[in-house]
């Protein structure tokens, strides 16, 4: 049997009483080599001793541990010779003046499961990750990224460069889903919003560009006429101010098909017209887009939290409000009616908008439907947290993460949030 001998200079100044049989400073490797110590004479050229190790190719017995065997240790403990261990730490003293009271007769103390970071992490019921975020991005025809005054940190991105750069940043921290919102030139707006289904319009061009660079990127789109309407409403406006339902749905179907043709993964009707989910599903299927999903804005409330968003898209209504088609913020049961209709018409995802002020609606839909639930943390929610952070009234990062966790806890599977990039960086451990 051949053996290999390794000569290694020892960094230990002196080794006294080295017992080869009990030496445990070396461990066998994965090939079951056995390391044997052999005696050697000091080497004159080196002031330190040399440890020569022979590695045999066969394992002919377990290596003995230094000191007593396991049986000898057990016998010593049985005989009362218990080895020393660190002492029991003293009980921390209460501050002076603390009343002395008998312990409460509690069989259950929930604080026991919260007493350390490790235990709190073990029992955490809700978790959040970058995969839960959908990043809303504003785009425009210009080359420069234009800041949005009411939404600090958000921009109208140039679709050729700024958009791609922002998507790249998001993907780097695990956010691989976006939703696009266009700022359309006024010259292309019309009462019927025909630009919404222009196959060479801003949104289809941006989709094709992103899919060419990142084929696995999940792209959501907004299906509504307000960015394209000269009236600023989500539908066609009759001369007496009435929003026309069925005629609007006809336009929305063409818009959804155009977006699917460009490569959209999920089309998202946010208009709140009656029957639009079923009509869009039929239109998509008729054009061969059975694989394209529909995320319905199921419970979209006529909220005051949308102001900064409308500034970003320059899409404020020219007159009136949107209360005849968006939901009354006072209503709870009405969300069930909308959810039932959307689910029966073929929606794949149900969305609640806004998010944090409507946690009860998110939980209602979560309990009543097996479909994925989305929540939209809207521009007003984002801007309030940003403003509070700038004024040092709150810790922006902590409030941001808590608000997102609350949406998850209420039952949201995905969250549309302008904090997506910032929150993902926080989750990945990057500094602000």
TrEMBL record:
<keyword id="KW-0460">Magnesium</keyword>
<dbReference type="GO" id="GO:0008270">
    <property type="term" value="F:zinc ion binding"/>
</dbReference>
<comment type="function">
    <text>Catalyzes an early step in the biosynthesis of tetrapyrroles. Binds two molecules of 5-aminolevulinate per subunit, each at a distinct site, and catalyzes their condensation to form porphobilinogen.</text>
</comment>
<keyword id="KW-0809">Transit peptide</keyword>
<comment type="pathway">
    <text>Porphyrin-containing compound metabolism; protoporphyrin-IX biosynthesis; coproporphyrinogen-III from 5-aminolevulinate: step 1/4.</text>
</comment>
<dbReference type="InterPro" id="IPR030656">
    <property type="entry name" value="ALAD_AS"/>
</dbReference>
<keyword id="KW-0456">Lyase</keyword>
<dbReference type="InterPro" id="IPR013785">
    <property type="entry name" value="Aldolase_TIM"/>
</dbReference>
<dbReference type="InterPro" id="IPR001731">
    <property type="entry name" value="ALAD"/>
</dbReference>
<comment type="subunit">
    <text>Homooctamer.</text>
</comment>
<keyword id="KW-0479">Metal-binding</keyword>
<protein>
    <recommendedName>
        <fullName>Delta-aminolevulinic acid dehydratase</fullName>
        <ecNumber>4.2.1.24</ecNumber>
    </recommendedName>
</protein>
<dbReference type="GO" id="GO:0004655">
    <property type="term" value="F:porphobilinogen synthase activity"/>
</dbReference>
<dbReference type="GO" id="GO:0009507">
    <property type="term" value="C:chloroplast"/>
</dbReference>
<dbReference type="GO" id="GO:0005829">
    <property type="term" value="C:cytosol"/>
</dbReference>
<feature type="compositionally biased region" description="Pro residues">
    <location>
        <begin position="84"/>
        <end position="93"/>
    </location>
</feature>
<feature type="region of interest" description="Disordered">
    <location>
        <begin position="84"/>
        <end position="119"/>
    </location>
</feature>
<keyword id="KW-0934">Plastid</keyword>
<feature type="compositionally biased region" description="Basic residues">
    <location>
        <begin position="108"/>
        <end position="117"/>
    </location>
</feature>
<keyword id="KW-0350">Heme biosynthesis</keyword>
<dbReference type="Pfam" id="PF00490">
    <property type="entry name" value="ALAD"/>
</dbReference>
<feature type="compositionally biased region" description="Low complexity">
    <location>
        <begin position="94"/>
        <end position="107"/>
    </location>
</feature>
<comment type="similarity">
    <text>Belongs to the ALAD family.</text>
</comment>
<keyword id="KW-0627">Porphyrin biosynthesis</keyword>
<dbReference type="GO" id="GO:0015995">
    <property type="term" value="P:chlorophyll biosynthetic process"/>
</dbReference>
<dbReference type="GO" id="GO:0006782">
    <property type="term" value="P:protoporphyrinogen IX biosynthetic process"/>
</dbReference>
<keyword id="KW-0150">Chloroplast</keyword>
<keyword id="KW-0021">Allosteric enzyme</keyword>
<keyword id="KW-0149">Chlorophyll biosynthesis</keyword>
């Amino acid at each position: 049997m051949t053996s290999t001998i390794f000569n290694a200079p020892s960094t230990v100044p002196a080794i006294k009483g080295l017992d080869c049989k009990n030496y445990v400073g070396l461990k066998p490797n994965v090939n079951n080599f056995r390391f044997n110590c052999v005696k050697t004479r000091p080497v004159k050229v080196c002031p330190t001793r040399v440890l020569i190790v022979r590695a045999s190719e066969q394992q002919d017995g377990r290596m003995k541990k230094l000191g007593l065997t396991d049986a000898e240790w057990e016998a010593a403990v049985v005989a009362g010779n218990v080895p020393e261990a660190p002492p029991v730490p003293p009980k921390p003293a209460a501050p002076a003046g603390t009343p002395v009271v008998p312990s409460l007769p509690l069989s259950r103390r929930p604080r026991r499961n919260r007493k350390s970071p490790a235990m709190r992490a073990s029992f955490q019921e809700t978790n959040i990750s970058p995969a839960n975020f959908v990043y809303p991005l504003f785009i425009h025809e210009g080359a420069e990224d234009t800041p949005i005054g009411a939404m600090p940190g958000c921009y109208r991105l140039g679709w050729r460069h700024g958009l791609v750069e922002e998507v790249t940043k998001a993907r780097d921290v695990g956010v691989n889903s976006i939703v696009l919102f266009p700022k359309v030139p006024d010259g292309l707006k019309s009462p019927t919003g025909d630009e919404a289904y222009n196959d060479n319009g801003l949104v289809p061009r941006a989709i094709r560009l992103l899919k060419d660079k990142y084929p696995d990127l999940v792209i959501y789109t907004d299906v509504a006429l307000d960015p394209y309407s000269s009236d600023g409403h989500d539908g066609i406006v009759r001369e007496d101010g009435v929003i026309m339902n069925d005629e609007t749905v006809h336009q929305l179907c063409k818009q959804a098909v155009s977006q699917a043709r460009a490569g959209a993964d999920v089309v998202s009707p946010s208009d709140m017209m009656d029957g639009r989910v079923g009509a869009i599903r039929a239109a998509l299927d008729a054009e061969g887009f059975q694989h394209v999903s529909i995320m319905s804005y199921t419970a979209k409330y006529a909220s005051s939290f949308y102001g900064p968003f409308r500034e970003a898209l320059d899409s404020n209504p020219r007159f009136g409000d949107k209360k005849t088609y968006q939901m009354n913020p006072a209503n709870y049961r009405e969300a069930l009616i909308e959810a039932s209709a959307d689910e029966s018409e073929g929606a794949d995802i149900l969305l609640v908008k806004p998010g944090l002020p409507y946690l009860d609606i998110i939980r209602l839909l979560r309990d009543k439907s097996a479909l994925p639930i989305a929540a939209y943390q809207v521009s007003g929610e984002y801007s309030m947290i940003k403003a509070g952070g700038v004024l040092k009234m709150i810790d922006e990062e902590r409030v941001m993460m808590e608000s997102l966790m609350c949406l998850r806890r209420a039952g949201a599977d995905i969250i549309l949030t302008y904090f997506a990039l910032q929150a993902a960086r926080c989750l990945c451990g990057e500094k602000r």
